[in-house]
Design a protein that fits this description.
The complex is a heterotrimer of chains A (488), B (122) and C (417). Chain A has 488 residues and is of the alpha+beta class. Chain A has helices at 13-23, 61-80, 96-111, 122-128, 148-161, 204-209, 282-295, 347-362, 389-398, 414-421, 430-437, 449-461, and strands spanning 3-9, 29-32, 49-50, 84-85, 89-93, 118-121, 136-140, 144-146, 165-167, 172-178, 181-186, 189-198, 219-228, 239-242, 254-257, 263-266, 270-271, 304-314, 327-330, 337-341, 405-407, 412-413. Chain A folds into three domains: 1-81 and 146-218 and 318-380, FAD/NAD(P)-binding domain (3-Layer(bba) Sandwich), CATH 3.50.50; 82-145 and 219-317, D-Amino Acid Oxidase, Chain A, domain 2; 384-467, no CATH class. Helices cover 29% and strands 22% of the residues of chain A. In chain A, helix 1 packs across helix 8, helix 2 packs across helix 8 (347-362) and helix 10 (414-421) packs across helix 11. The mean pLDDT of chain A is 95.
Chain lengths: 488, 122, 417
């Protein structure tokens, strides 16, 4: 039975960023992830927004970690290589009443330490966003966009090359505290650790309940999104948010450009019972289109190329107003258990700051010795279409797979598919490829590239076609051969 | 013994439902046809229904794993799945030329299965 | 950068590209180059292993691989050059093409260009089917490729949404390979594919065809577990209480095709919102001089036969343009899709003569009259015994100089008889 200094449950953005912080030190760290890749849950399915910190109450943990995280993102992007665009956002007011609300948001933002907030009138908005109709808006220049999976993958892969063990497809089934150690039962064996970090997201209550009676509840709240074709990327250049609805503690349906050049509509907000129920519903698809149309009157009808939904991990029920602060704390009943509870929006932005905080908490009981051979790998993918002609030619000369484009919508080459499948986490599903290099994300939704990715998986990576999965371990793609090769 | 059948005509998109009466080799259209072509189709379909069959055969050492094939002439409908079974069990070594016979007298029908594609050896 | 100077460059080596290239060569172009992103030539045809190709064009029924091999051999005999595994990255108005393959980057200067990029299949999200996002959902063409080219079985218990020909043919193919085809679901009151395919692909094997139905829910968090189908009313809205859950592991989508015109959009070639392809004149020349379009990137054809005939037309005029024999005319008449007509090609005519029109009707009709009017003047009239949206209508009409010079648009309409 292997003994680790720290075991982390969950490889979402929180677990992965903590793993990376810990990997800077000489510690044995293991991460258990039930999905087939990191960033398989809530961390993946959101707006991909770097929040400024205007939306959380003054002196809340949400405000604090959001503002801190926001400042950390740019240097992290430079070193780890995930894409970041500080495109700014408008919170739009449709009338005088809403104008009062955005003034109030501005005040809260300023108190939280968010710089350069500005109220602008309709004409100023029109010069920047000619397709938007509104009365006034709050301009938030320190808001930006990232790709949530690229962000999480950057942390996780960097942690992995610095010897953090990521165990994918691994479910934590039971936990016990024995002497000073945690005994962790999983479907892949039993492990021990001194410290246990509960970053299990929607499953955080289940993890706590193995060790003690939880003093909180989780209220899953589903948010649905629609993804628009890149063809419509000219509709806007910054993010457009409405004033937040009064109930539910959410930000409302907004329109957000993505790093890849698409536009997102969403999310809806709907409390549900089943935290795994990530369906897209007809009702919400219609609602999203209708609300987008109110913000952008010329909104195109046939622009949708994909849809997804994510589940918020809320600590407050709708009756309680839906808003609760994060809980980032060591359990009083079970020393060594560090709980990260209710990490919903702005969790993506807050993640690097939360990771620092968790490191501080762990360093109280474990001695931190900086790792001498700590390595930083910049994961940036530069797409062939963004390179100069000379760069393209040189790259192809060096490695001819750069000349073979297999995803026509996103212009992804065989070289990028290879790099994606060679990831240090050994995640080799179709989704793992998609989230690492964008193949299959475009308007044909994998119609052209799937055959090529499957061919590369089979020929170059020796993956049996019966073991190829879309995402999770049972999401098999195929049912064998049409003609089985018999041994004769 | 007389038998009555309804046949959907495939000559044009109107898709007439042609009712026919069969008595041994006697054939009679009772209703539904709008044209002579339709009657001819219904006769063939009622007395001796046949289908062209296309499928594929496993290839050994080819630049493609499968060879597309077709029947040299239409196959009686009731023999289709016998023929398919033989095709499924067959195997051919590359190279293959388009038009090459892959299976002779498939399922005792006196019909051959022929390659509809050329395959290079690798 | 590898520089190439050629007469006619054809983008796409599917049936349209092959036919256009051959025609350009036969009409006097010396250097004809066909560029394709796949490793093989023939586009979608090698995976269409069923027969029925060439009946109208050649009077004999060939399978897809046979049809394409015939064209490829012919093209190779004529000395046409091919660049396979090559992607066109950029198209420029000055007839320059930037392409890429594993030998490097190419700059191709052409005297004329034929667009033959084909089409792509509509996906689940083009029709917004709600539900989970499991594996086991494929477009019919992708599934056909896996089964027929790559020897990979996509599923065992299959529901097919859409009764176009691809959906019907894949239904039979799956049945032949031992899968259970649980039904073909069609939102319209009639099948989208040819009657022959309805009979020979579905009826022959007792595969149910659910007309006036659609898939309203997809269930399965990992692999597909079931789909719910519901009856629809005349406005295509699901009727409550008609839901039926069908357990299955695979859903194939045959929802129609979208012409591929990403390259056309790069240089602002005008596109027709009704066809999804470029606006062309009688020579299949687009609104960018010297660039021609044919095949499924121009309009989605019913049969490869008619597609090839059209592509040869485009290739011929591309060759003429390349040799400098094109007639530039600033005078043209617009062709408008009028009552009951979904679209017409060409969308403009700049030269008098016998013009081949391709058109589709909006609704199925068992007898109708087709008219072409220039203002009040009846240019053409033809009685049609039937007219179905799924069957493209071709007519040849003599268009005089007077019609082109007149101020009136040419309007094509359909009347019930």
């Amino acid at each position: 039975m292997k003994n680790f200094h720290v075991a982390i449950v969950g490889a979402g953005v929180i677990g992965s960023s903590i793993a990376w912080e810990l990997s800077k030190n000489d510690l044995d760290v293991v991460v258990f992830e039930k999905g087939s890749d990191v960033c398989s849950g809530t961390s993946k399915a959101n707006s991909g927004v770097v929040h400024s910190g205007i939306n959380s109450p003054v002196s809340s943990l949400k405000a604090r970690f959001c503002v801190e995280g926001n400042k950390m993102i740019k240097p992290l992007s430079d070193s780890l290589g995930f894409s970041l665009k500080m495109i700014g956002k408008f919170v739009i007011a449709k009338n005088e009443y809403e104008a009062k609300i955005i003034n109030n948001i501005k005040k809260i933002g300023q108190e939280n330490g968010v710089p350069d907030l500005e109220i602008v009138d309709e004409n100023e908005i029109k010069t920047k966003e000619p397709n938007i109709s509104c009365y006034q808006a709050l301009w938030v220049p320190t808001a930006g966009i990232i790709s949530p999976y690229e962000f999480t993958i950057a942390f996780a892969e960097n942690a992995a090359i610095n010897n953090v063990n990521f165990l994918l497809n691994t479910n934590v089934k039971d936990l016990k505290k024995k002497d000073n150690n945690f005994e962790i039962k999983t479907n892949r064996g039993v492990f021990q650790s001194n410290i246990l970090v509960n970053a299990a997201g929607l499953n955080c209550r289940e993890i706590v309940s193995y060790l003690e009676e939880p003093d909180f509840n989780i209220y899953p709240c589903r948010g649905e999104y629609l993804v628009l074709d890149k063809e419509y990327s000219d509709l806007l250049t910054s993010m457009i948010y409405p004033v937040p609805p009064k109930e539910l503690g959410v930000l409302g349906v907004h329109i957000t450009p993505t790093i890849e050049g698409n536009i997102l509509l969403g999310p809806s907000a709907e409390y549900i019972n089943d935290s795994e129920d990530k369906r897209s519903t007809k009702k919400m698809m219609k609602t999203l289109l209708k609300e987008a149309n109110e913000i952008i009157p010329i909104f195109p009808k046939k622009a949708v190329i994909s849809a997804y939904s994510g589940i918020r991990c809320k600590l407050a029920s709708p009756n309680e107003g839906g808003w609760a602060d994060y809980r980032i704390e060591e359990s009083k009943k079970t020393p060594g258990l560090i709980n990260l509870l209710g990490i919903e929006s702005p969790g993506l932005t807050a993640a690097p700051a939360i990771a620092k905080e968790v490191l501080r908490m762990i360093s109280k009981s474990l001695k931190m010795r900086p790792k001498l051979n700590f390595e930083t790998r910049n994961i940036r993918n530069i797409n062939i279409s963004e390179m100069s002609s000379k760069k393209k030619s040189d790259l192809i000369k060096k490695e001819n797979r750069w000349g073979r484009i297999v995803c026509r919508c996103e212009n992804i080459t065989e070289a990028e598919i290879h790099k994606a499948l060679n990831n240090p986490l050994k995640a080799q599903t179709l989704s793992a490829v998609k989230y690492r290099c964008r193949a299959g994300m475009g308007r044909c939704q994998g119609g052209f590239c799937t055959q090529h990715i499957v061919r590369i998986m089979e020929e170059d990576f020796n993956i049996n076609i019966n073991e190829m999965n879309l995402k999770s371990a049972n999401s098999k793609l195929f049912y064998g051969r049409t003609r089985e090769k018999k041994n004769d | 013994m007389t038998d009555e059948k309804e046949i959907t005509c495939i000559i044009c998109p109107i898709s007439c439902k042609i009712s026919v009466k069969l008595d041994g080799k006697n054939f009679e259209v009772t209703s539904g046809s709008k044209c002579i072509k339709g009657v001819e189709y219904a006769r063939a379909e009622a007395l001796d229904p046949k289908r062209m069959l296309t499928s594929s055969v496993l290839v050994n050492k080819g630049d493609w794993p499968l060879l597309s094939v077709k029947s040299s002439e239409p196959i009686p409908k009731n023999k289709l799945f016998h023929v398919l079974k033989e095709i499924k069990d067959a195997k051919i070594d590359a190279p293959v030329k388009l038009g090459q016979t892959v299976i002779k007298n498939v399922a005792n029908t006196k019909i051959n299965i022929i390659a509809t594609k050329s395959i290079k050896r690798i | 950068m590898i520089n190439l100077d050629i007469d006619v460059a054809v983008i796409g080596a599917g049936p349209a590209g092959l036919a256009a290239a051959i025609s350009a060569r036969e009409n006097g172009s010396k250097d004809v180059l066909v560029i394709d992103r796949n490793s093989w030539l023939g586009g979608i045809l090698p995976q269409c292993i069923h027969d029925g190709f060439g009946v109208e064009e050649l009077g004999t029924s060939l399978t897809g691989p046979e049809y394409s091999e015939m064209y490829i051999e012919n093209a190779q005999k004529l000395g046409i050059d091919f660049l396979a595994k090559t992607m066109v990255l950029e198209l420029k108005k000055n007839l320059e093409i930037i392409a890429i393959n594993n030998k490097g980057l190419y700059k191709i200067n052409a005297k004329s260009i034929v667009l033959a990029m084909g089409c792509r299949e509509k996906t689940r999200w083009n029709v917004m089917i709600p539900g989970d996002r499991p594996s086991g959902i494929y477009t019919a063409g992708v599934a056909q490729g896996f089964i027929n080219l790559y020897n990979i079985m996509v599923g065992k218990n299959v529901v097919i949404l859409g009764s176009g020909d691809v959906g019907l043919i894949v239904a039979r193919r799956l049945k032949f390979e031992g899968a259970n085809v649980l039904g073909v679901v069609e939102i319209l009151p009639y099948a989208g594919g040819l009657p022959r395919n309805v009979v020979q692909c579905l009826d022959d094997y007792d595969i149910p065809l659910y007309l006036n139905h659609t898939v309203t829910y997809i269930k399965g968090r990992e692999r597909l577990e079931s789909v719910t189908i519901s009856q629809v009313d005349e406005n295509k809205n699901p009727v409550s209480g008609t839901d039926k859950e069908i357990k299955c592991d695979t859903l194939l989508l045959s929802l129609g095709l979208i012409p591929e015109n990403e390259l056309s959009k790069q240089i602002d070639i005008e596109l027709d919102g009704l066809t999804g392809g470029p606006v062309v004149n009688q020579s299949f020349e687009t609104t960018v001089s010297g660039i021609f379009a044919c095949g499924n990137c121009l309009q989605v054809y019913d049969t490869v036969d008619i597609l090839s005939i059209g592509a040869k037309h485009a290739g011929k005029y591309a060759a003429k343009y390349a040799s400098g024999k094109n007639m530039i005319s600033n005078c043209f008449v617009n062709v408008i899709a009028g009552k009951e007509v979904r679209y017409v090609i060409p969308q403009m005519i700049s030269k008098p003569g016998k013009i081949l029109f391709n058109l589709r009707v909006e609704n199925p009709k068992n007898s109708a009259v087709l008219y072409i009017f220039s203002g009040d003047y009846e240019v053409f009239k033809k009685k049609l015994p039937w007219a179905y949206p799924s069957n493209m209508i071709e007519i040849e009409v003599n268009i005089t100089e007077d019609i082109i010079k007149s101020d009136n648009d040419l309007e094509v309409t359909i009347d019930d008889r």
